[in-house]
Amino acid sequence: MNKRERVLAALEGRRPDQLPFTMWRHVYFQAQTARGLARSTLDFYRRYDPDLIVLTPGPYHMAEAWGAQVRSFSTDDVAPYLAEPTVARATDWRRLPELNLPVCSLQREIEAVRQIRAEPTSEDAPLIVPLFSPLTTADLLCNGRIVQDMRSYSNDLRSALGVIAAGTIQYALACLAAGADGFIFVIHLASSERIRSREQRDFGQRFDLQVLSALDQAAIRILHLAGEHADFALADRYPVQAVCWDTWRADPSLRDACRQVRCTLMGGLNPTTFVGGSRADIRAQILDAVSQTEGWRLLIAPSGPLPIESRDELLAAVRQILQEQ
User: Fold this and answer.
1) What's the domain range around 86?
2) What total of structural domains would you count in the chain?
3) For residue 45, what pLDDT is reported?
4) What is the pTM of this model?
5) How far, CA to CA in Å, does 274 sit from each of 29, 277, 318, 321, 322?
6) Range 257-276 average pLDDT
7) Residues 6+ apart with CB under 8 A from 83
């Protein structure tokens, strides 16, 4: 099998020739331009040889599209920060403009996808882009004030979420047209510790499904539940093929997840191991993931972007270990 066939087999519940894996890491300075983002993504792919390529734009790329002011540094090692949010006051939600995709900052990511796909060495592996849920983007636009606004200015926020959902669909379709094979749909607010179940349905799920339903033609659709105590049941409610979560610290375990959802499971690797662990630790985590799932419907991965200080020899070890199995 080639890499595309291997990944699709795992997502479709068929037995691949070997377990597919993916991993990704931010390169903050290079991600400020389309050329730098494409180059850094390809460099990572060529060095560590994952089966699935994940684009790694800056953490505020969706907020920038609606005018958030972001300050960056001249190094890949230091994350940018939000200098001025778009929604400074809750009343600003009602004035959130529709996304003007042809002239907004997201053209950087779309062009990076196009450049990656123009590179012959990447043809064998599918490429996905991170796609933030509308509520996740809204939380960035107001600099983390989303729960307060949700409970005090609910109608204004609902209107803005509709605008964000429509813009997210435009952006995702443009990435697919540029050559992306799909997306990893990132939700940062799926925990009952942050929002109530009713709020998740009304402000989260309602708009998530608008986006996901419009993208059902994508070959790869992965749900990423960030943080602990996320509502894992979303994996069965959403039209996705796989779910990624903090398998190393959050419930359910991979074994329990096999019984709870029908989709493929993505995880098994603890990102911190790539900083302070050993090759034996990486191997033990992979073997444990295989043992819990019997190797079915499994895509080996960390639970999110790897730490910038991850060690080169441990990143290279993942492919080597999987080929030994």
Assistant:
1) 3-324
2) 1
3) 96
4) 0.95
5) 22, 6, 10, 14, 16
6) 95
7) 69, 70, 71
